[in-house]
């Protein structure tokens, strides 16, 4: 009896979290949601994203990361794009979001402007859906797989920095912590491994991994799971007293291509974060890493499935959302 009560207490918060984040999306999200109101929305967004991509490659990792941070905190509702105003500090100004590159926000804003230039589409397409479409498009532009994007999200009505607290995975997380956090959003361990491969693109700042190369523990300055040659390279790029905001590529081999090199890097001890490398050092996830390191097709299939599931988190409907006229502020 006591064991049963313990399990109920343990599982109830997890069950409630999954329920709250999943929402009733089965009937709301669908392909071609805008077929009657804005039938060319995907074409319009793709053109705007491509134009932005031609200006700077940062468009790719910035948009992809923006989508993840948005969905993981309060659901895929574009709340991360809201600017702080008055006495409210919005999500984007939380310390965990300050490193989000401005090009991601700019991508959504420009795509929204392009959509609204079409009379029949004006203020008919949510910023949340534009972000979801733009994310798929940047992945393709970087050489990654294409996939169908479910649409029908409404934009959120709230955005607070406080809501970010404890709701984003940290670079120091172990597999248990990662698995638990993803599970509360209805995502499996396989999903988290696939989504972690987004680190094949973009950059990080020295202060996010400095402890792995300078002060790992009392007896070792360098994390023993880190490739020694790679650690030396990181020290060169990030000297002990360097500006902590200096950025380096997260993927040391193909940083401008969406591919499965991320998993090959893990096999060679070149995962930048503890939360990356643990996917290989932990035997529970190692086999998946090994499979995807040698099978691009299998990885692409898992990644697109995980992205679809990620896009379903916390979708707003009815009175819980609307379609913003300006993605950066509430109507």
UniProtKB/TrEMBL annotation:
Principal place of residence: secreted
EC number: 1.11.1.7
Active site: 69
Disulfide bonds: 38-121, 71-76, 127-327, 206-238
Top enzyme class: oxidoreductase
Keyword Ligase: no
PROSITE patterns per UniProt: PEROXIDASE_1 (PS00435), PEROXIDASE_2 (PS00436), PEROXIDASE_4 (PS50873)
Annotated site residues (Transition state stabilizer) in this chain: 65
UniProt name for this protein: Peroxidase
């Amino acid at each position: 009896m006591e064991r049963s009560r313990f399990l109920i207490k343990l599982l109830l918060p997890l069950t409630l979290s999954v329920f709250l984040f999943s929402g009733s999306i089965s009937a709301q999200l669908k392909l071609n949601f805008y077929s009657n109101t804005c039938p060319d929305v995907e074409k319009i967004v793709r053109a705007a994203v491509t134009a932005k991509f031609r200006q700077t490659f940062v468009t790719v990792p910035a948009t992809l990361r923006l989508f993840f941070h948005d969905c993981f905190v309060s659901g895929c509702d574009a709340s991360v794009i809201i600017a702080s105003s008055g006495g409210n500090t919005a999500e984007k100004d939380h310390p965990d979001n300050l490193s989000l590159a401005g090009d991601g926000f700019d991508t959504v804003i420009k795509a929204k402007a392009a959509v609204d230039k079409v009379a029949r589409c004006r203020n008919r397409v949510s910023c949340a859906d534009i972000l979801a479409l733009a994310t798929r498009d940047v992945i393709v532009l970087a050489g990654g797989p294409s996939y169908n994007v479910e649409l029908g999200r409404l934009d959120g009505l709230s955005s607070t920095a406080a809501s970010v607290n404890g709701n984003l995975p940290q670079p120091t997380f172990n597999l248990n912590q990662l698995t638990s956090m993803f599970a509360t959003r209805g995502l499996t361990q396989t999903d988290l491994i696939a989504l972690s491969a987004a680190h094949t693109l973009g950059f990080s700042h020295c202060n996010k991994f400095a402890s792995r190369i300078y002060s790992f523990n009392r007896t070792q300055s360098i994390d023993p799971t880190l490739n020694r040659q790679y650690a030396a390279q990181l020290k060169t790029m990030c000297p002990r007293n360097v500006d902590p905001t200096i950025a380096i590529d997260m993927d040391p081999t193909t940083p401008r291509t969406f591919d499965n090199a991320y998993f090959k890097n893990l096999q060679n001890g070149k995962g930048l974060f503890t939360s990356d490398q643990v996917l290989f050092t932990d035997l529970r996830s190692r086999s998946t890493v090994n499979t995807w390191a040698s099978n691009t097709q299998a990885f692409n299939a898992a990644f697109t499935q995980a992205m679809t599931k990620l896009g379903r988190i916390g979708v707003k409907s009815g009175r819980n959302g609307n379609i913003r006229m300006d993605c950066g502020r509430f109507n």
